[in-house]
Design goal:
With 203 residues, the protein is an alpha+beta fold. The chain has 6 helices and 10 strands; from the N terminus they run H-H-E-E-E-H-H-E-E-H-E-E-E-E-H-E.
Length: 203
């Protein structure tokens, strides 16, 4: 395997060291899931089982079928923002739940730990602005940075609430092999996706 591919795995061994001992046994287990091609950008992402990839048109049709009008409006706002921003966009949904994943290709950004606070500030501001627009509240739960060779990873987890409903937005900003990718996981569960991100292949 190319050294750039294996760097992602090594990088996450350093990420959130306070949890490393607790998760070490789990990381050694095989992780069930499937690879999906981000064909236009020569990237392969590894996701849990039961996810399906959607085209832009299919994803919008999926949103329009949402019965909750407030949620439908929020998802359409997010979809339109991602659709019209620069860079290729890829969409995934868990067919057994409401978990949504978006993968956005960004202009290459070789960030370091020094820029972490700035990245966190921009992510948090976007989350707060988006939450305010949709009559929600956004709260940062965790954030962390890791680097190994050409690979840089920044992760932040947000809790988004509307009345009694709570969702979680887990964001990964990943730069490796002169490419930068933003992954967002939207779910009703606060799930750690590190073991899937470790298997990411950026060619």
């Amino acid at each position: 395997m190319n050294k750039h591919f294996s760097i992602l795995f090594m990088c996450f061994l350093l990420l959130f060291s306070c949890e490393e001992n607790k998760n070490s046994a789990q990381k050694n287990e095989s992780v069930p899931g499937n690879y999906y091609q981000l064909s236009e950008d020569n990237i392969e992402i590894f996701l849990p089982k039961y996810f399906e990839k959607y085209s832009e048109t299919e994803y919008k049709e999926l949103i329009l079928k949402i019965k909750d009008q407030r949620l439908k409006k929020a998802e359409l706002n997010r979809f339109n923002y991602m659709k019209f921003s620069k860079g290729n966009m890829y969409y995934f949904k868990d067919i057994l739940s409401s978990t949504l994943i978006s993968a956005k290709i960004l202009q290459y950004y070789d960030f370091s730990k020094r820029e972490s606070s700035q990245i966190l500030g921009m992510m948090s501001q976007k989350c707060e602005d988006y939450a305010f627009f949709n009559e929600e509240k956004c709260k940062k739960l965790t954030a962390g940075f890791s680097a190994k060779g050409l690979t840089k990873v920044f992760k932040a987890v947000y809790e988004v609430t509307h009345e009694e409903k709570v969702t979680y937005n887990t964001c990964y900003l990943i730069s490796s092999n002169y490419k930068t990718l933003m992954l967002n996981f939207y779910s009703v569960l606060d799930t750690d996706y590190n073991k899937y991100i470790e298997k990411l292949i950026i060619k």
